[in-house]
Amino acid sequence: MAWKKRAGMPSAARETIEVDATGKVVGRLASEIAGWLMGKHRASYIPHIDAGAIVKVKNARGLVFTGKKLESKVHFRSSNRPSGIKRVRVAELMQTRPDEVLRHAVKYMLPKNRTQSVRLKRLLFV
User: Fold this and answer.
1) CB atoms within 10 A of CB 107
2) Phi, psi (5° rounding) for residue 41?
3) Within its chain, how far is the Cα of 47 from the centroid?
4) Which one of 1, 59, 89, 110 is most buried, counting C-beta atoms within 10 A?
5) pLDDT on residue 91
6) Are 34 and 107 in contact (CB under 8 A)?
7) Total-model pTM
8) Could you tell me which residues are beta bridge partners of residue 72?
9) Residues 56-69: pLDDT tens digits?
10) Residue 91 and residue 101: Cα distance in Å, rounded?
11) Contacts for 31-34: CB closer than 8 Å, 24+ residues apart
12) CA-based nearest residue to 61, from 96, 89, 88
């Protein structure tokens, strides 16, 4: 029965890309990182094959927001319970966990499918 044979997901040789985040704008850096995690920087890019790179980010404290976004932006998370929405200002989050700000930006730039969590695990902060 030929239709029962499955080749499986082809393996890809992953490269490691190191990024220094000092002085870089959050959104622009996040879109670059999302492209690297998806594998769009390769000539052999195929959307359904996860052949992206491992991205290591250094100095996440040095990220920059343009305009008044640092004071006005708010990150939301929910426990899916009534009145379970938690609001955290980005200014407070940058002081305590600046890597979470970049991870949040990259997460919403990746495709919303089953590969999103797998790709986000390859985003490392040094």
Assistant:
1) 16
2) -80, -10
3) 17
4) 110
5) 96
6) no
7) 0.87
8) none
9) 999 999 999 999 99
10) 10
11) 31/109, 33/57, 33/102, 33/106, 33/123, 34/106, 34/109, 34/110
12) 96
